[in-house]
Amino acid sequence: MARVLIIGCGCRGLALARELIAQDHAVRGTTRAPAGLVAIEAVGAEAVLGDPDVVGTLVRSFEHVSVACVLLGSAEGPPARLAALHGPRLAMLLARMLDTTVRGVVYEAAGSVDPDVLAAGAALVRERCEDSRIPYALLDTGPADHRAWTAAAVAAVHSTLAGAPVGPR
User: Fold this and answer.
1) Are 121 and 87 in contact (CB under 8 A)?
2) Beta strand residue intervals within 11-131, DSSP E
């Protein structure tokens, strides 16, 4: 059993949480919206109010976490905000995360965000995790096929728990 943190625990994150909880993992999910806390708790996960645009709001959620899933591939907002979210904010998030108990990172590298922005985010995850010798998985299964995405996300979590850096899922 491991504790998994899902940053961006929206509808796909909730599906991932359900699957991981069914496999006896402890799950903590974050949301920016107070209304999202109820949905996260309803699937049996620990709910945390936190905003990936304000990394400091997430830091306490890293405690006792084995794998962190950054599920922001379909985040919404102006292009400059999304570029910052998958660039400097992601770099700050990784720096803070990799100095904790987190020993694996899953990054959603597919979704509605500009593919170039997601590719840059994936490169950043690859670089930082390899430099720190932290297992990672790049989840590049598109979100359109919900079942395939969920299966790929579960496999990505398991691969990071197994300790091997992997590429696209």
Assistant:
1) yes
2) 26-31, 46-49, 67-70, 105-108
- Residue for token digits 């985040």? 75
Helix (H, G, I), strand (E, B) or coil at 117: helix
Token code pair at residue 91: 């770099």
**What are the backbone angles phi and psi of residue 157, rounded to the nearest 5°?**
-60, -45
Please give the structure tokens belonging to residue 149.
């995405």
Helix axes 115-132, 88-97, angle to 10 degrees: 30
> What per-residue confidence (pLDDT) applies to 165?
58
- Copy the structure tokens of residue 63: 């405690």
107-148 pLDDT, tens digit per residue, is 999 999 999 999 999 999 999 999 999 999 999 999 999 999
